[in-house]
């Protein structure tokens, strides 16, 4: 019987099963899958004519066969109100993953809502309103009327729309997509001009990569194939093997093994080629480091285990060394950039100074520069730069981001095959909204304002700040206190007297309370404090478009019914707008009510056509029907044409040497070192003993919002792990699996000890945003000037809470490093 799946046999997919396109809705890689559905009282046979594989299944299949699927890829769901078998399996013809499935994507079927097989029973199925001391099911009309009346009442008070605070996803994939970002964006940025808005994983409405955009370089500018074509990969603060698994396996590993050399010779003729090298910048020895050493050989892997937060110094030194050696691309710099000499002078850093600050050897920094830029038999080296949360959520984000892009520009590695300077990404992307210029730069620090008692109404879309914000301990304390004030007021008047309810809520808000509305697919930690829950549909329960990390846009077709009365976020936003228009007209404010026109969408496709199709670059070429025909490979944004039945896309950005600035020239940026930048970090480091680095792990998606009710994952990680050096464990008298408290002046949390011999003494690494222990509790409130948080550089003390409980005693605490053989 399959582990934790209560199934010992699987039905054969019949030849006439319905086949639909699916893009994995978890990480940014966006692997291609197909969903096969067929009536629950039917199955295929072993004869080739009886199964979708056209294969004799009575015979033993070869190891790499596509004619199989795993128990995790199977479920029974509803389609048009009837039970159907469903199999969601990887598509071997998708260029992204070539049939590979990760532990996340290959579980999409079992992570779907099923009454027949009791999976994901936590899903929200009906609107809920706080009544009689608890959350009670109600109708959409009733819930939306309450939301609209309270929201309108508060935006008619002094302060206007500034009384409305919003938290909203800005991404693609699950809980996002072009349809849903347009729906929420049109509501808050067009019908209204909401300024106090934040994004799902940070406390303001801003880009995580402001610097590269200000330099004229969009952060997703290459294609995944470039990892197969380059001479060197530079990976900064990214653990790709664990968090972008199939991008790593399908595109990085072939280069490191040397198996993509034939492709290099075909596409890049006339220059020497060899198996790829990789430079990994990360304080930790990650599983990616180990896997690269196995696949490429240790001589082709340079792990720069820098002092945390000193990436900027390293890249300034690399820029200096490359220029001193004359390895910069002078022709490219002259034709396509500006301010090189200015930035070089401002950022000048010697190898000796860099070594002192970063803790690296000068010769290793020099070696990295050579691997990046030293010519190969007179030809320019092709280097792909990739970075993610270790940099994005690290020290002095803006300047550090600029320092990396400076090196990529200096070596002419943006816009060319085998190049790119790209973020690796978390979610897929799917941003389509009206202008957010009114929000300002820097944007409002929403969490800080809420803690200070500002705002009266809070609309939350697919976010859980209790798990995914900084200063989370304080935030939760204040948020609960403010929302409890409104709950007490609601309890004091009859639920059926709407006017009295609204009046009581508004009165409580004026006394410091907060009315909160949570739109999500599952109950959340922050939702426990809210007054209205609105149930959303997710990818596959609706048609959804997104793009992956190489701007590859696909349509995931609706292959199952959403649970209960849940509906797409775009349509929820539209119905909120409809109700607010109605309430404003009742109040006699026709002019304001008119701002809420244009939300007469019946389907998510209506929202797509109103948003992406009309407003995005190349959007007029893109429709659902055309995307459906493009299958799991889709096209790479932006679209430039529709020709011969296909959408024509853009393989790489800036291939013409023209960048996203007014004059078309990329701008080098000054990025001078200023130590630990965020307020409070330096003091925290001096006062507390342990670095509490943090991030994701291979098994868990995002904040475990689906995993928290999945036995397969919770059996592996009942608590968030904290990797610790064995010597530190001895000093603290803790053992594997023990529960410890991580604490500092900003808060406290708990974790499960995981012995990690490769961890530096005094350095720990904790799973981020986990429901049974929130690392954000100990992250202080300091940000950079653009209100970007530094989650990575956090210091705390650690003490034992309890010996390993029974719930962890079955776990393995072996090293997770990949080894050959």
Describe this protein's structure.
- The chain is of the alpha/beta class and 821 residues long.
- The chain is built from 25 helices and 29 strands.
- It has a seven-stranded mixed beta sheet. Strands 24-28-25-27-26-29 form a six-stranded mixed β-barrel.
Q: What order do the helices and strands come in, and which of them pair?
A:
Layout: E1 18-23, E2 32-39, E3 74-79, E4 82-90, E5 128-131, E6 134-137, H1 140-155, E7 164-168, H2 178-191, E8 197-199, H3 210-214, H4 226-229, E9 232-236, H5 240-243, H6 245-257, H7 261-267, E10 277-281, H8 287-296, E11 301-304, H9 311-325, H10 330-336, E12 337-338, H11 340-347, H12 351-358, H13 362-373, E13 383-387, H14 389-392, H15 397-410, E14 421-423, H16 446-451, E15 457-461, H17 472-491, H18 498-510, E16 515-520, E17 532-535, E18 544-547, E19 552-556, H19 569-586, H20 590-594, H21 604-615, H22 624-630, E20 635-636, E21 641-643, E22 646-648, E23 666-667, H23 681-687, E24 690-695, H24 711-716, E25 721-724, H25 726-732, E26 739-744, E27 747-755, E28 763-767, E29 795-802
Parallel strand pairs: 7-8, 7-15, 9-10, 9-13, 10-11, 12-23, 13-14, 15-16, 16-17, 24-28, 25-27
Antiparallel strand pairs: 1-2, 2-4, 3-4, 5-6, 5-17, 18-19, 19-20, 21-22, 24-29, 25-28, 26-27, 26-29
Helix pairs in contact: 1-18, 1-19, 2-19, 2-21, 9-12, 9-13, 9-15, 12-13, 17-18
């Amino acid at each position: 019987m399959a582990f934790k799946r209560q199934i010992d046999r699987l039905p054969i997919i019949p030849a006439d099963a319905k086949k639909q396109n699916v893009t994995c809705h978890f990480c940014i890689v966006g692997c291609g899958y197909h969903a096969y559905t067929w009536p629950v009282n039917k199955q295929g046979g072993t004869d080739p004519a009886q199964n979708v594989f056209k294969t004799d299944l009575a015979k033993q299949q070869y190891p790499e066969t596509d004619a199989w699927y795993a128990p995790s890829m199977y479920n029974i769901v509803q389609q048009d109100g009837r039970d159907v078998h469903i199999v969601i399996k990887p598509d071997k013809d998708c260029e992204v993953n070539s049939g590979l499935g990760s532990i996340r994507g290959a579980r999409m079927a079992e992570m779907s809502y099923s009454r027949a097989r009791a999976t994901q029973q936590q899903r929200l199925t009906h609107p809920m309103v706080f009544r009689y001391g608890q959350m009670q099911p109600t109708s959409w009309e009733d819930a939306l009327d309450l939301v609209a009346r309270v929201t309108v009442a508060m935006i008619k008070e002094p302060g206007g729309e500034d009384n409305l605070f919003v938290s909203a996803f800005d991404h693609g994939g699950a809980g996002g997509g072009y349809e849903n970002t347009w729906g929420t964006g049109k509501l808050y940025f067009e019908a209204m001009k909401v300024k106090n808005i934040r994004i799902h994983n940070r406390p303001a409405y801003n880009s995580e990569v402001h610097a590269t955009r200000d330099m004229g370089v969009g952060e997703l500018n290459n294609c995944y194939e470039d990892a197969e074509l380059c001479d060197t990969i530079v990976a900064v603060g990214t653990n790709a093997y664990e968090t972008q698994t199939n991008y790593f396996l399908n595109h990085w590993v072939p280069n490191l093994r040397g198996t993509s050399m034939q492709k290099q010779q075909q596409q890049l003729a006339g220059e020497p080629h060899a198996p790829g090298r990789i430079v990994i910048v990360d304080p930790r020895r990650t599983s990616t480091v180990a896997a690269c050493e196995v696949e490429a050989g240790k001589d082709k892997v340079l792990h720069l285990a820098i002092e945390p937060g000193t990436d900027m110094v390293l890249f300034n030194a690399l820029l200096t060394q490359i220029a001193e050696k004359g390895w910069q691309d002078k022709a490219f710099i002259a034709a396509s950039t500006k301010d090189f000499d200015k930035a070089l002078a401002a950022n000048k850093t010697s190898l000796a100074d860099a070594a002192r600050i970063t803790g690296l050897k000068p010769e290793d920094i020099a070696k990295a520069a050579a691997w990046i830029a030293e010519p190969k038999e007179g030809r320019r080296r092709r280097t792909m730069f990739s970075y993610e949360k270790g940099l994005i959520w690290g020290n002095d984000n803006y300047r550090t981001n600029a320092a990396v892009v400076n090196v990529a520009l200096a070596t002419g590695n943006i816009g060319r095959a085998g190049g790119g300077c790209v973020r690796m990404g978390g979610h897929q992307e799917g941003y389509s909204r009206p202008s957010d210029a009114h929000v300002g730069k820097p944007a409002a620090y929403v969490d800080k304002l809420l803690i200070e008692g500002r705002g009266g109404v809070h609309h939350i879309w697919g976010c859980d700040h209790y798990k995914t914000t900084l200063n989370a301990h304080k935030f939760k304390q204040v948020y609960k206190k403010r929302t409890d004030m409104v709950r007490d007021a609601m309890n004091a008047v009859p639920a059926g007297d709407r006017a009295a309810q609204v009046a009581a809520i508004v009165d409580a808000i004026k006394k410091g309370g907060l009315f909160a509305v949570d739109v999500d697919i599952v109950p959340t930690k922050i939702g426990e404090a809210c007054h209205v829950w609105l149930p959303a549909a997710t990818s596959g329960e609706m048609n959804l478009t997104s793009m992956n990390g190489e701007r590859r846009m696909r349509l995931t077709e609706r292959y199952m019914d959403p649970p209960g009365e849940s509906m797409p976020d775009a349509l929820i936003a539209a119905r909120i707008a409809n109700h607010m228009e109605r309430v404003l007209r009742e109040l006699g404010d026709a002019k304001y009510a008119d701002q809420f026109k244009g939300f007469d969408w019946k389907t998510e496709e209506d929202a797509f056509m109103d948003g992406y199709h009309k407003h995005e670059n190349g959007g007029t070429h893109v429709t659902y029907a055309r995307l459906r025909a493009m299958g799991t490979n889709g096209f790479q944004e932006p679209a430039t044409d529709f020709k011969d039945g296909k959408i024509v896309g853009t393989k790489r950005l800036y291939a013409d040497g023209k960048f996203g600035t007014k004059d078309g020239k990329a701008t080098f940026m000054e990025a001078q070192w200023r130590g630990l930048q965020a307020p409070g970090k330096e003091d925290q480091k001096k006062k507390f003993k342990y670095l509490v680095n943090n991030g994701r792990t291979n098994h868990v998606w995002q904040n475990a919002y689906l995993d928290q009710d999945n036995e397969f994952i919770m059996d592996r990680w009942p608590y968030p792990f904290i990797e610790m050096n064995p010597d530190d464990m001895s000093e603290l008298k803790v053992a594997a699996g023990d529960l410890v408290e991580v604490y500092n002046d900003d808060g406290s949390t708990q974790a499960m000890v995981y012995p990690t011999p490769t961890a530096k003494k005094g350095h720990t690494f904790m799973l981020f945003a986990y429901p049974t222990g929130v690392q954000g509790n100990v992250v202080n409130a300091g940000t950079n000037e653009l209100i970007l948080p530094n989650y990575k550089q956090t210091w705390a003390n650690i003490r034992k809470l309890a010996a390993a409980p029974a719930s962890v005693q079955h776990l393995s605490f072996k090293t997770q490093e990949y080894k050959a053989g």
